[in-house]
Amino acid sequence: MEEAAALFKCTVRAGNRRLSRLNIRAIVEHIMQVLRNDFSKDVFASEYTKLLVKDVLSVRKYCSEMPVELWNELIILYGGIMAHPTVQFDQISVVKVIQLVCHHMAIQSTSLSTGSLFDDFVSTVRHARSEKVATVLGYVLAALNTFCQSVAIIARTKLCHLGETVFSDMLSIWKTSQLHVKDQVIQYFHFQLELHHPLGVVNESEGAQAANWCHWKAFANFFQIL
């Protein structure tokens, strides 16, 4: 089995050297099939995820040829992995996959399947409060910001709810983190302000929106400082 995996990686990298002539559907479907199998996932999870980041999702030709349903299958699979991290996966590579998928789907104006991702990000942010490695935390928040920006037009209400749900967690991260992580948190808070109060409007009649106004108004003092 290890020989087969090594052959697969060599094939992908050889294909890239020949101007990316491989079938993107076959590549991604194989990776997802391996990661959905409990036995093969334990062995190849980390290496296949790194391969996906470095040699597949970083290749423009592959991304332009990726079918919509495959993007959505990939985001659902890795959203679940991100929300429930295990030792088999390199967490930085996992969140890089999420970030790259959101980025490419936004560029292509492709409809992102967002359903479970909101819950996945709530779980991930809450888990991130105890994350000690600043690099991992930075990538998690960068992925969250990319996701929010990619679905803002179609999911404003859900994003408002997400922001109100994880506000305390994000504030805790901001208080205890290094500068580059704080920057990601500030970017997220600014984005939430724009969602709730576009162009600075205050009232709902003017276009302001919140999932729960009581919760949102409780954060007002912090946002005035911000």
Distance between the termini: 53 Å
Taking pLDDT < 50 over at least 5 consecutive residues as the criterion, the unreliable ranges are none
Choose one word for the global shape: elongated
What string, H for helix and E for strand, traces the elements in order? HHHHHHHHHHHHH
What's the alpha carbon Rg, rounded to whole Å?
19 Å
Explain how this protein is built.
This protein starts with a helix and ends with a helix. The protein has 13 helices and no strands. Helix 1 (2-17) runs parallel beside helix 3. It folds into two domains: 1-66, no CATH class; 91-225. It is mostly helical and 226 residues long.
Spell out the blueprint of helices and strands.
Elements: H1 2-17, H2 24-36, H3 38-56, H4 60-65, H5 68-83, H6 91-107, H7 115-128, H8 134-151, H9 156-165, H10 167-176, H11 179-196, H12 213-218, H13 220-225
Q: Gist?
A:
By secondary structure, this protein is mainly alpha-helical. Helix content is 75%, strand content 0%. The protein folds into 2 domains: 1-66, no CATH class; 91-225.
Key attributes of the depicted protein:
elongated; 226 residues; 13 helices; 2 domains; mainly alpha
